[in-house]
Specification:
Layout (H helix, E strand, L loop, with lengths): L1 H37 L4 H49 L1
Helix pairs in contact: 1-2
Keywords: Membrane, Transmembrane, Transmembrane helix
């Protein structure tokens, strides 16, 4: 458990330290897209669709993980109930 906490803390620190460069790019991207939209180029619309695509992928992956986790736990629960029923019959 300590190892897991250590790894999570390390990932958090790396994300915080590495995010300072990412924040600097937001103003540049915003200005570029604003100029392209005002001049009539369609880059802004494509960028918006790309952002939505990138934003939806983690939710889709998380949904699949949750679904298979639920199915696995339900299967294990049914198996345990079946074994408990058999044990109770032999215990009598």
């Amino acid at each position: 458990m300590k190892k897991v906490i250590f790894v999570l803390m390390l990932v958090f620190v790396v994300m915080v330290v590495g995010s300072s460069d990412l924040l600097a790019q937001c103003a540049m991207c915003k200005a570029t897209i604003k100029d392209n939209v005002e001049s009539g180029q369609g880059i802004g619309q494509g960028l918006n669709k790309g952002i939505l695509y990138l934003m939806s992928v983690p939710y889709i992956i998380g949904s699949f993980i949750a679904f298979f986790w639920y199915k696995s736990s339900k299967k294990n629960n049914e198996k345990q109930q079946f074994l408990d029923k058999i044990k109770s019959k032999f215990a009598k």
